[in-house]
Amino acid sequence: MNLVAVGTVAFDSIETPFAKKDRVIGGAATYITLAASHFVKNSGLISVIGDDFPEEMLQEMKSRGIDQDGLQIKKGEKSFFWAGKYHYDLNSRDTLITDLNVLANFDPIVPEAYQNCDFLMLGNLAPAVQMRVIDQIPNRPKLVVLDTMNFWMDIAWEDLMKVIAKIDVLTINDEEARQLSKEHSLVRAARKILAMGPKYLIIKKGEHGALLFDKESVFFAPALPLEEVADPTGAGDTFAGGFIGYLAQTQNISFDNMKRAVIVGSAMASFTCEKFGPERLLELTKEEITARIEQFVSLTEFEQILEL
Amino acid sequence: MNLVAVGTVAFDSIETPFAKKDRVIGGAATYITLAASHFVKNSGLISVIGDDFPEEMLQEMKSRGIDQDGLQIKKGEKSFFWAGKYHYDLNSRDTLITDLNVLANFDPIVPEAYQNCDFLMLGNLAPAVQMRVIDQIPNRPKLVVLDTMNFWMDIAWEDLMKVIAKIDVLTINDEEARQLSKEHSLVRAARKILAMGPKYLIIKKGEHGALLFDKESVFFAPALPLEEVADPTGAGDTFAGGFIGYLAQTQNISFDNMKRAVIVGSAMASFTCEKFGPERLLELTKEEITARIEQFVSLTEFEQILEL
After folding, report:
1. B274: how many CB neighbours lie within 10 A of its CB?
2. Which chain A residues are within 8 Å of B202, Cβ to Cβ?
3. Deepest in the core among A1, A227, A263, B222, taking most CB within 10 A?
4. ipTM higher than 0.85?
5. What CATH number does the domain containing A280 carry?
6. Chain B residue whose CA is closest to A218
7. In total, how many domains does chain B have?
8. What CA–CA distance (Å, rounded) separates A157 from A163?
9. What number of other Cβ atoms are within 10 A of residue B104's Cβ?
């Protein structure tokens, strides 16, 4: 298995300043695997759902090479449900409802066929659950990417520190980087966080782009200014899926290739924002992706500054 | 005269979450002309001060080629004074005190030697005052850049519309772009604002960089993640001064050169943030500026994405 992803597969009810939709298909692992499916055709999904999740979506995912031997389906139970409301700037949101449902007792099981994976994406979940996945993979993957959030910093600090020490790339937003490091400057925050274990840190800034740090350097990927943002839900997970999917496709984990992967992830995330739920990820063509990446390239391109 | 700048020359009292300084030298035109002085040696300053403004600073500015025939000194009166307090993110602030003093009755006079200027920078001031300067320049300059703020949108909308119709480049921040256009999407906001008159729009996003729009395209300049931000006061004006200073030096107002000028302005602004007031602008060397611009170049540089 080239890529394995763990995370939620769920329903979201989403309210933006401009529209509202109930029970859209969502979940971190849904966005991650769908985004990655544009780059790799053999990925494995580790998650849990109830018997309320639409079979057509599972079939759609299977047809994209997303193996579901790691997906537990709990009869008579309900899938994870999240409801949130975005602020006017669409860059921040309030959680209205979190119904854990099947997630409350989620014990991930890594099928044997997944245990030799090259790339492992640990989507946002309780750090102890993320650690349970790492513990079931005897041979260390080439690259382990972990996404987390402020909630786990608040209630599961020690578990989070343990799992962060085991991974290669951490993805969080700017406020989370400040909370995790207790530093205001993102440069200092990055230095402290990289001392906690990860070799790379990605700070996601939503409509303001993303920063990729290693110990020596920093790379800045812009976000594409969009004509219309329908719904940013899943943009961060789509970013992660595009990022690790591109790395898994190219089998190259150099810092130079990670820069490209950050651009690819940003391009993929920009599509997700254009419609509610993962709809855009399902209809996207290779041509659209290539054209969008071209837009990202030209967005920051300028000719050399000679005269001073 | 190559470049003429109008704006405040003032004192600022500044409180950040980390430090506090009283009566630092400030003012839009101070930052604009000092930043531009690294690129052009013949600029003219149009402003007004009281007799409380330090003579040494005026001499320092003169030694950098900043002509002061347009600077009115009001005996027995006080210079403009602003006090503000930054929020924790340093990207937003509250105004605590605004003492207009000499600014209350400011009637700008454009000396004859300034009337043939190639580049005109209208720093943030009442739109009617900005218009008074335009009205005194019989031959249209090559490029007129205008900076403004939400305050004038609130209280002087019609005056602002009149002056915006007369300029080439408007610089505002993202919230102001939304207020001015009544559009949330910055892409749509830019389209509406460019229909109001300007050929170019620069949206300044502070620590998140800047966007340059013309009718067809958009360019994104990152902000350099800084180890330490001491005080962002004057960063926007420094950006404007570096931007127009570079254009005035190169005498090239193509969109391609404006992209470079946005990078130069961003580099200059990053220096201003490193210390309180315009201190960094006074000690900067050409070598430091060149090295900083190099950092901006490498910040967004990545190799071509071939495989997909």
Report:
1. 14
2. none
3. A263
4. yes
5. 3.40.1190.20
6. B299
7. 1
8. 10
9. 10
